[in-house]
Amino acid sequence: MTGAALTVRKILMLRGGALGDFILTLPALAVLRRRYPDAAIELRTRPRHARLALEAGLADRATDIDSAEMAEAFAPPPAGEQMLPAIYSGYLAQFDLIVSYLPDRNGILARNLRHAGVQNYIAAPHRPAAGEHAADAWSRPLQAPEDQAAGPAIPRLNLPEKFLRSGGELLHRACAGRPAAVIHPGSGSPAKNWPLENFIALAGRLREKHVLQPVFLLGEAESNWPMEAATPWPTVKQPGLELAAGMLSAARLYIGNDSGITHLAASLDTPVMALFGPTDPAAWGPRGTRVRVIRAPGPGHDMSSLSVAEVSRRCQNLSAGDSRR
Q: Which region, left, alpha or beta, applies to residue 317 given φ > 0 means left and ψ of -120 to 50 means alpha?
């Protein structure tokens, strides 16, 4: 990263995308916080994601990436004009460093930032290059040599207990105080989902073999799933990210597909069993000291080819000996 000797007082990071993309960008935020400890970091992202970074101390202020004024940054200036509207130019010019993860295929954003007087702008990659993990790709443009020598980028959310408490209590009630295995059976794409009947069968094994109480966690994409008719296990629907984070932090074990919730669980240091199929875990897998990834076998990595017995076996040691929960 160039400009390391600059005086940096205010930093703006532009980050769109889904929850998983946001979680995998946390190491980049941590690099900025570490390199510029006295700088104020503003994060433009989706508001529900931003609160996680604010509560973890990785950002000082958050604004909405989908606001109308942000759309102006991607609009070519009218004919004969060279700059963005004055009010927006003034907003952008206050930052000593702007880092963007937004796609800018035509270079309009970069040009508008130059016209706005922004001197230091880093256009980070929108997607990782072949053979590179997304967390590494998104951290690399910001790193000093000593950061690069530290090893793989691992997302971490150190959230305060008061933020997590309500979700922990919700999980405690759902599992009647037993050690819990939180199961999130969905994702943003049906092709990435292990069959629901397999998750239900796995839940029975977790209860019988591992003495864990299964609790199903459903997000927006799964809001209409008829879970009450499909499974006898407790189900929590659309709790919101704050309650979900508290539930995940209090769980003895988490099992899920390639989803944002899986990345969130890993960032909270919860033992995670992540089930992958068509997406490549070498690029998009969750990272953490207690994360295990199992990929469906076969040339197409069809999720239905992953057996309940194999997933249950791989869960055997992951939750064992976790006395903290």
A: alpha
